[in-house]
Amino acid sequence: EVIVRVTFATNADTINMKTYTVSIAETSTLIKGNATVTITLGRAVPFNFTAAATNGGFTGNINGVAYGGTTFVAVGAGGQIVYSTDNGLNWTAATTNGGFTGNIHGVAYNSSGRFVAVGANGKIAYSTNNGADWTASTNNGGFGTGNINGVAYGGTRFVAVGDGKRVYSTNNGGYWTASRATTTYNFNGVAYGGGKFVAVGEGSRYTSSTDGDTSWSSGQLPGFNSTIFGVVYGGTRFVAVGASGKIAYSTNGTDWTEAATTGELNGNINGVAYNGGKFVAGGEGGKIAYSTDNSANWTAATTTGGFDPSDSIRGVAYGGGKFVVVGSNGKIAYSD
Fold it and tell me: Regarding beta strands 257-258 and 49-51, do their DSSP bridges make them parallel or antiparallel, or are they unpaired?
């Protein structure tokens, strides 16, 4: 047996593939005869981001972004909401915002054409016209004035999570019911896939449920020593991101494996998205990284679309053939 190890500078997609055949002659009694090894080498494909031409007048931090139908919707500081119908290039401010006065933390879309946004002071609102106008939900499921940090849609319902509570809505976000499985933990993000919701939050904690109501089970992610900020489902697995450059993945939402590399993401990682073959994550220092091997290894993006080391990327979404990242100081960028 002959073992040949080839080390590449980055773990990236490849183009212009070239194949080399290497013959290894006998050099010791450990190798008998000649060995022929075929090695295929390639050149890394650049993965670039470009700053949006306009941001809809957004000032302050943009905390979340989602895609639905043909529209991106981004939300953030001071109840601001903007939307884009040209794959993230230009953005327009929403006409109404459903009564948000504080920060909006998250936004999601369902198959019925409705966006739902959640935020500070227990506020929830929905839009039925691609993010242009918003209506406050009838109630918030008992959140009171606490922070609602994340929202996702799956099956027949929206699920929202936040400070010490989990709630769900089966009527497109208009009315909300408190989960009967209570919790004292604060959760930051939630995703749906494989027939279940998975929420993540403080103390490296995750919780999963098939209905968002009674059947929640919880645990802690290995390798995470503090907060988990975001989670997404893609392909066959959940991917969670958090403090200190930590990334982990799970095929069932219960058993988790820490990623081997994180592509220079060494601060807080705040958001992650998936496009059918690639995961993209962003975080502190304006850094973006991607994975094409089901999140086991990550590579830094070639350019970050105007995000610099003083910035923080706070949300990532995919739609219309583009990844869109949002963050500090009203910055928005889209992938090539």
Answer: unpaired
Residue 185 CB burial class (10 angstroms; 0-12, 13-18, ≥19)? middle
How far is C-alpha 260 from the chain's CA centre?
Answer: 18
Q: Cα angle at 77 between 238 and 309, to 5 degrees?
A: 70
* Tokens (6 digits) for 146: 């606490």
Cα 157 to Cα 168: distance, rounded to the nearest angstrom? 7
Mean pLDDT of 152-157: 96
Give pLDDT tens digits for 85-137: 999 999 999 999 999 999 999 999 999 999 999 999 999 999 999 999 999 99
Placement of tokens 């928005």 in the chain: 332
DSSP letter, residue 55: -
Q: Residue 277: pLDDT above 90?
A: yes
Q: Which residues pair with 198 in a beta bridge?
A: 191, 208
How close are the terminal C-alpha atoms of the chain, in Å? 44
Report CA torsion sign: 306, 309, 314, 320: positive
Q: How far, in Å, CA of 247 to CA of 281, rounded? A: 9
- Rounded Cα distance between 56 and 330, Å, is 9
Statement: residue 304 has pLDDT above 60: yes
Could you tell me the CA-to-CA distances from 86 to 106, 135, 178, 235, 322 in Å, in that order?
A: 21, 24, 37, 26, 10
What would the pLDDT profile of 205-255 be if each residue is shown by its tens digit? 999 999 999 889 999 998 888 899 999 999 999 999 999 999 999 999 999
